[in-house]
Amino acid sequence: MNQNKQMAEKIISGLNDEQKFAVLHFDSPLRIIASAGSGKTKVITRKILYLINIENVDPSSILAITFTNRAANEMAQRIKSKSYSNSNGLITSTFHSLCAMILRQDIDKIGRKRDFHIVDKKDVKAIINNIQQKLGINNDDLNYKDVIEFIHIAKIKELDLAEYIKDKNNNPDAKLKVKILKLYKEELVKANSLDFHDLLLFTKKLFQENDQIREKWSKKYKYLLVDEFQDTNDVQYYIVKVLSQNAHITIVGDPDQTIYSWRGASVDLMINFDQDFTNCKTIKLSQNYRSTKKIVEAANNLISYNKNRLDKKLYTENVEGEDIEYFRAYDTEAEAKWVVNKINELKKKKNQLKSIAIFYRSNYYSRTFEEELVRANINHKIYGGERFFERKEVKDVLAFLRVLYDKNFLSLDRVINIPTRGIGSVSKAKLFEYAEKFKKSNNEEVKVIDVIKERINHIDFPIKGDKRKQLFKFVKNILKYSKLLKEGKICKTLDEFLEQINYYKYIEDQSSLRGAPINNVNELISSIKAWENENKDKSVREYLEHVALMTSTTDEETTKNYISLMTIHSAKGLQFDNVFIVGMTNDVFPAAKARSKDYFSDEAQKMEEERRLAYVAITRAKKRLFLSDCRGYNYQSETSKTPSYFLKEMGVNIHSSIPKTLSDELEPVEEELSLDDERDLYEGDIVSHSKYGEGIIKEVVGDTVIIDFGFEEGEKQILKNHSSFKLLRRREEI
């Protein structure tokens, strides 16, 4: 007995009071709200160890579910290495592995064979490619990634496909996606195969349609623990409810870190858990062991603005730490330079590169930071993604530019069917073979484009009918804009060319449901404009050389000491001593899409998810947190850039980085200043601006005012005596 007591004390040693309660509670369903850095993994493993070693629970009656194979394996290894008793039979599993096990035993009860094959990503791609070939379409007609993401969302959210098409106003691409999805499902049935979504959906179907099987599995386990519960979707939650009917259930997660709604996760499932489990006990793990007090304070300040959440507040006994640094740069290039300067300062203080990470909201924002790190010869790696200049749509647009510049054959080969002109691989091969024969007979130096121009109306030309008309139009535009490019205006010429060939419409249609491709194209166009402004005497050739230098740089594989660049979604579950969150600009972070309602969620839900994403980013930082955004003009949205709302919500003084020379950095709203004496203006005063309309003064900073013109225009910083606005009424008159 004494030995058992010693063992119990050893299992709970080193835990705080909240963690101990979570480990020892078995009287009712338990919801553990585990804040960032609060040691939740330790709590789960200790709880299982306590069950096996102290309560003498048969390990085979315990089921622990998490969201990745790595996490499941690590949990199993920890328990095995620290258990005093035999832990054989314990199941630590992902949802997908668990469902595969269930279906191997019982899928025949709903008319499918138990020896089904689970298709992987390569299998899925092969099936989709075969379907596209049968339908006479290719990846240029409908982007593969877009199709895959639609299949994912349609399945996991169990979309009503007819309603989806209706919501998309009978858009042809929407109809085509639905058709591909139906054919895809048919192909899986023919091949006796299930994809990863089917593992969940067929388990739900099995439980719904067969009472006997549902009862069997509801009695299988006595203890059920689910980690990362905030990432659970409706289908997974249904499965959890079935499996927990006769089991003690413990769920662990943080609703404030729900950032995967686009793949089905719902913050409401954890928030409303006590409605389905009415005698549920909730314990909050609030102590953060990761970050400094100042970082924790910023995280608390920010997330408190969300309404749909469980009230909780992080605290830490760690050191106060250094101030959070914020910088507002003149443009994105200056922002990247500031980040690199700070990195060099960290290096001088003996910080290793692997202790540093740069986070951004979306992949397209990485470009300037990649370029600046290359210039500074700082080793870095894109975590979980491609470098900016390696992304398909970026390479496509640069290929168009090379075609306009020198009629480059390899570039023409890449884009001749973008947007689709019906010139697939077979037609293209015939065309290029024809061009080569003509060159050999006439002039080896002539370009393929010129051959097409010269021969397109000849009877022996291999492309016929509507395809020939489309090709003729494309070549005509190439020749026209090639001449215009020689005038030296790279961005203007390329932009007009892309508009003329309907590329922008094409890439918008091709963009995934999260819109990454169009954002990457917009960023490239903006970067070309910026490059031209900085290099007024340089040519197209020099710009292409500049890009080539960027793309030729490879990751250093001989060392693991590199800075990590990643989206915030990729950063989930990671931690770094030093974190830079860049692009803290409205319409970048929070993303512009957060202001719109769509088929899946409304504006308020999207904005709260954006705020949760920022919370996740902040809480990855252990020692230092750096925030940055930039001034300037967004050439694509045609709006001035304003600091992210999240900065003020964090408690950051957004005026702390205003330069000494205001004229160098203030937004140039107007050039002419009023000669009137400086006006007395106060926070809360209502003003009217000649361009932006009515606004409210949010803050007075020296001889400037910060005016909020609402969601459409955002906040502007303007000199107090500027002639562009006038006072409408005082705050006391409101």
UniProtKB/TrEMBL annotation:
Keyword Nucleotide-binding: yes
Gene Ontology terms, MF aspect: 3'-5' DNA helicase activity; ATP binding; DNA binding; exonuclease activity
Pfam family, one: UvrD_C
Family: Belongs to the helicase family. UvrD subfamily.
PROSITE patterns: UVRD_HELICASE_ATP_BIND, UVRD_HELICASE_CTER
Positions with a binding annotation for ATP: 34-41
Organism: Mycoplasma phocimorsus
Cellular-component GO terms for this entry: cytosol; DNA helicase complex
Record-given protein name: DNA 3'-5' helicase
Gene3D superfamilies in the record: 1.10.10.160, P-loop containing nucleotide triphosphate hydrolases, PCRA, domain 4
Domain UvrD-like helicase ATP-binding: start-end pairs: 13-292
Reaction(s) catalysed (UniProt annotation): Couples ATP hydrolysis with the unwinding of duplex DNA by translocating in the 3'-5' direction; ATP + H2O = ADP + phosphate + H(+)
UniProt-listed InterPro entries: DExx_box_DNA_helicase_dom_sf (IPR013986), DNA_helicase_UvrD-like_C (IPR014017), DNA_helicase_UvrD/REP (IPR000212), P-loop_NTPase (IPR027417), UvrD-like_ATP-bd (IPR014016)
Record-annotated UvrD-like helicase C-terminal domain positions: 293-573
EC number: 5.6.2.4
Signal peptide annotation: none
GO BP annotations listed: recombinational repair
Transmembrane segments: none
UniProt keyword list: ATP-binding, DNA-binding, Exonuclease, Helicase, Hydrolase, Isomerase, Nuclease, Nucleotide-binding
